[in-house]
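Thought: the user wants the 3D structure for the chain below. I'll pass the sequence to the structure tool as-is, report back what it returns, then summarize two notable features.
Action: structure_tool
Action Input:
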Amino acid sequence: MQVSRLNPAQIRRHAKGLPPIWNVVESYGVTMEQCLVGTGVTRAQALGDEEGFTLEHEFAIYRNILRLCGDPLVGLSLGAVYRSETFGILGYAQLSAKNLLELTELNCEFAELTYSHFKFQIIDGPGVFGLQLEIVHPLPEDLLQMYCDRDIQSAFTVLQSVGICTSSISEVHLIHRDEANRARYERHFGCSVRFGRTSNVMFIDPDLKSFALPWPNEEASGHIRAACRGILEEIHASISLKSEIIELMVGSPGSFPPLEEIARKLGFSPRNLRRKLKEEDSSYQEILKEVRLQLAKQYLKSGLTVERIAELLDYSEISTFSRAFKSWTGKSPQQYRAR
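Observation:
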């Protein structure tokens, strides 16, 4: 899955994951306002009260956090705030699970309802049990360590909230490579940590699969699971429409089909397509801007001239493209290329 294919419902999930981290940031002597400088994100968006948030916004904020906090392991501190109650309805499902295996199955089934950039899978075999986190869309290389640390720690934080202790973790695998801080990681997790793996994994004592959780509620769990599935269905329904529109747009370099043509190819009237996109908190213009931004970044990295890029993105004037790109990123095309 490409970053550009994430739909508005998914991106809103990520935006809702920001409010819990601000207390952590402040513990490093850094303010939320400092983390927003140069990102194009408003205070209301950072607090989850206003829409218009993109993954590029999230990446820009996390880059600031990493730079301002000055700690390569800050992701571990960020992940520690994601307790069950921060996940909304999914948190209620976690807390009503009867045992550790059921809790782990919930996390895998509804990983999209967390704020994670990873897909969760259970490792369950003879003498081995654990939770595996696999990347599902490209993450910026400079933020990979932070996201790996944040999300593996978040999974452990949920386990701690239901009574699983550190000594129950036998080994941790991480995708990134930070051998220089191995001692810090092993002190933190209380076990052996291996770097440079193909996925993040937390191995748990297999005898704990049937570990009884403190607040089981089978009746409530059934209702809550159904509600979680309903939310996922809404998310998935909106993925397909936007994906089809993006494919039609990127299939015509140098020009982008107008809304009327896209509606015809997808079997909608223009009015119905606008309505369906509005239901997803999106629009033709928002998708076009997103596609142009992603293509512009790829073209700039490829070495094409700004003049040629403007043509490929269907701008009649170079200056119009330059102004648009700066409004999206805060940098001119030349500045973005030179960074």
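Final Answer: Structure generated. The beta strands are 118-125, 128-135, 169-173, 192-194, 200-204. Residues 218-250 form the longest helix (33 residues).
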